[in-house]
Amino acid sequence: MSSKGVVVNQVFEGVKVADFSWVAVGPHIGRELAEHGATVVRVESHKRPDMLRTGPPFKGGITDVNHSAFGAAYNTCKYGISLDLNKPRSKEVAARLVKWADVITESMVPGTMAKWGLDYENCCKIKPDIVYLSTCQQGQYGPYAKLPGFGAFSALMGGYSFITGWPDRNPAVLWNNYTDFISCWYCAIAVIGALLHRKKTGKGTYIDLAQIEAGLTFLGPAALDYMASGRIPVRSGNHDTYMAPHNVYPSRGKDSWIAIAISSEEEWQSFCRVIGEPEWSKQGRFSTFITRKENEDELDGLIAGWTINYTAEQVMVMMQEKSVPAGMVEKGQDLFYDPQLKHREHLRFLQHTVIGRHAYNAPAYKLSKTPCYIWKAAPCLGEDNLYVYQDILGFSEDEISDLIVEGVITTEADVPESMKG
Amino acid sequence: MERVAEQDSLLQGYRVLDLTDEKGLLCGRILGDFGADVIKIESPGGDNARNNPPFYKDDPDSEKSMFWFYTNFNKKGMTLNIETEEGIEIFKKLVKRSHFVIESFEPGYMDSLGLSYKQLEEVNPGIIMTSITPFGQTGPYAHYKVTDLISQAMGGLVYILGDSDRPPTRISEPQAFFQGGLQGALGSMVAHYYRVMTGEGQHVDVSIQQAVVLTLMMEVEYWDILKFNYRGEGCGFVYSRPQGQLFHRRVFPCKDGYVYYMMGGGAQIGLIASSKAMVELANREGMALELKDYDWTKYDLMTADQKETDHMLDLVAEFLITKSKAELAAAAAANNIFLAPCYDMKDSGESSQLKARDFWVEAEHPDLGEAITYPGAAMKVSQCPWQVYRRAPLIGEHNEEIYIEELGFSREKLVMLKSKNVI
Predict the structure, then answer these.
(1) Rounded distance, CA B93 to CA B87, Å?
(2) Interface pTM (ipTM) of the complex?
């Protein structure tokens, strides 16, 4: 029996994580481990709530710290506690948590954990074999380590805005702070590796992940090209230097689009058959990749004239039946109806204490023997205080009351006025 | 190019057989970076991914694909035709001595060769088989064909990027397959942890589509809670408000490129000082003077007027265009302004921050007669620092090492296998 009251075959059963991180990258690490059986305690404070808790979408329009589905998104299967690390007495509480933990994750501005006495060196004194991961935009050291900013900055300084959008327009904003969602998976991989290293050698590990650096690893081939030839990668809309047609075309319906990419001569022939071999498709100016590329804008216009007559799904199915790479440009809504994602059980609906039943993403990989087990919606701020302080950290009821009175354990009364619903 | 100090690596002593194409190559690369002994198994004559651009000095030679260089860094290479009977037997011999098999063939292909997970498990119960495919092993789209663009589109990434008055756009460099590779490495590590604890291997089934969906930040939550689909808005953001939308521009041209600047105030308390500091900076040069005494506590994104917003940002833009990225970045750091330079690859290559952290590393390519500079570690790990073990393999570079030294094949047998197109 696990502490959750069910028998499950879980990979990280017994692994304990103290999650001092916030926003996106840090919290994802604990979530990944928790969904595979680790016990994860997320430490937060009502005095300075995670900025995701104060951002939309809010259930019922209630803008308090517990109604944001964004605030919940990366925190499934965790126990949530509230603790004001600026209070001197929090040191004793935090020390117990560190002693309990196998892994510590944090994503504060460099120096913050040291200010609280919770940097790697100090934690090692409490738990010499701790696995400790720090992640921030620029890394823990270097001239820009303490530059202010947030996720959007890593996508900019990681080079992604510059290569997203149109060559005749300004670089596009990456609304999703894209590099966050490269960094977090690397972090999880490193933590698992470090846990195994500790098992083998008895030694802990310190991991410093700079989100800009992790982001740049996904631009590797282009970086090599720059280093070897001096060529700077640019924005190219949806065109590709080595494929044509290669674009996003309008389809029937409001703001509805279909992506088509032809990577071989065989696919081009199949494509032409699907669209009924119109006269233009047989003309010399579209007969080879080279000529199609030379006449690409005209070609795109002709294709758009055909795709607009069908829904994106219809075009996708017609093309895929003939093995032509084509796919719907899926919107948020489409992800809820995509039969493949349904088949993969990608979205999991869990009952959150105040948001109610809502959707969470599942991992992109399925393990045949030890599937992920997503059993608990994200906690409200401090929701699991009693369980964690009493059952995990061994404080008595009286001690817990004292900690609340002293403001060490924060409550909703501590939320700044501007962040109250 | 000999392996150094591999005893210090996180995955020392673990072997990976990598059968993937462009869709899964990054997975083995990441395991190799952690010190695993990764063998890229190519079909005789070399893999198709060797034809992927860009090419070294634009020379389209199968030994000069920089896509190949990058995605097969820290791997060894051998050739083996797993579509022949002898090839299958040799592959199974290797599986017996290995810990991971990574593949990205169309679902069903490995099974058709008698190399499904179930069959490999019989050869080696501890084996972890990781399959990285566009949609996973089963389901209605399992056999759909994709390119990186199609995967970015079907994973929802395209819709949230680009300008709203044009078709939505992908990120112009390949990303979806790298996301699939990264998730493959993560799933493999979870399975590996379980194997170390129990001795049991398992099958890891990765969907590239899902890997892309996981990059959408809160797109799922937006639809779930608000029934709202976020659409790319070019160089800015759109705020949805009861009285109407507000387009809020964020990317601005400067003297030598672009910067991101976030103007704000009101409830976004943290931005009041930043907005004021930006105006003061411009005022010093005699610009944006009409904003000199502007009360930023009154400027709130939820109530701001579109015309007034555009006008104020135009004034700031007039100042930004007179300065360079470096000048503005330095001023932002000194005055706590929410501004960041929009880096291109040259900026990244010259970044003093990345230099201070030794991010860029050189790897010797003796066959090219020079070293090439690579992006280095995705993270710094104290116990087992990331290192360059070897550049990507040439076609069949480690055939002798593996066939002769390790498997004990005679040179005659090697020749025979070559003549039968097995290696």
Answers:
(1) 10
(2) 0.97
* Segment holding B208, helix H or strand E: helix B208-213
Cross-chain Cβ contact A187/B175 below 8 Å: no
User: Are A221 and B71 within 8 A, CB to CB?
Assistant: yes
The full DSSP string for A277-308 is --GGGGSGGGSSHHHHHHTHHHHHHHHHHHHT
CB atoms within 10 A of CB A261: 26
Beta-bridge partner residues of A43: A81
Residue of A nearest to B135 (CA): A340
Q: What is the pTM of this model?
A: 0.96
Q: Closest approach of chain B CAs to the CA of A269, in angstroms?
A: 15
The token pair at A36 is 């595979």
Put simply, the answer to whether B214 touches A181 (Cβ < 8 Å) is: yes
Using the Cβ of A25 and the Cβ atoms of chain B, whether some distance falls under 8 Å is answered with no
Smallest Cβ–Cβ distance between A227 and the set B187, B340, B372 belongs to B372
Backbone φ and ψ of A99, nearest 5°:
-65, -35
Among A368, A372, A419, most B C-beta atoms within 10 A, so best to mutate, is A368
Question: What angle do the packed helices B306-320 and B270-284 form, to 10 degrees?
Answer: 50
First to last CA, chain B: 23
Cβ-based burial of B344 (10 A; exposed 0-12, middle 13-18, buried ≥19): buried
Contacts of A358 in chain B (CB under 8 A): 221, 224-225
Q: Which of A218, A223, A164, A209 is nearest to B179 (CA)?
A: A218
Q: Tens of pLDDT along chain A (421 residues)? A: 344 444 456 999 999 999 999 999 999 999 999 999 999 999 999 999 998 998 889 999 898 999 999 999 999 999 999 999 999 999 999 999 999 999 999 999 899 999 999 999 999 999 999 999 999 999 999 988 877 666 678 899 999 999 999 999 999 999 999 999 999 999 999 999 999 999 999 999 999 999 999 999 999 999 999 999 999 999 999 999 999 999 999 999 999 999 999 999 999 999 999 999 999 999 999 999 999 999 999 999 999 999 999 999 999 999 999 999 999 999 999 999 999 999 999 999 999 999 999 999 999 999 999 999 999 999 999 999 999 999 999 999 999 999 999 999 999 999 988 777 6
Determine the Cα–Cα distance for residues B161 and B140; give it in Å rounded to an integer: 27
DSSP-assigned letters across all residues of A122-171:
HHHHH-TT-EEEEEESS-SSSTTTT----HHHHHHHTTTGGGBS-TTSPP
What positions of A carry a catalytic annotation?
180
Dihedral, CA of residue B136, residue B137, residue B140 and residue B141, to nearest 10: 50
Rounded distance, CA A219 to CA B296, Å? 39
B125 exposure class (CB count in 10 Å sphere: 0-12, 13-18, 19+):
exposed
Cα within 13 Å of Cα(B413), Cβ side:
12
- Which tokens hold the place of A127? 């738990």
Q: In what order do the strands lie in the sheet with A78-82?
A: A78-82, A39-44, A16-19, A103-106, A131-136, A205-210, B380-381
As to burial, measured by CB atoms within 10 angstroms (0-12 exposed, 13-18 middle, 19+ buried), residue B18 is: buried
CB pair distance less than 8 Å for B200 and A178: no
CA atoms within 13 A on the CB side of A200: 17
Instruction: Quote the Cα angle for B10-B116-B205, to 5°.
Output: 55
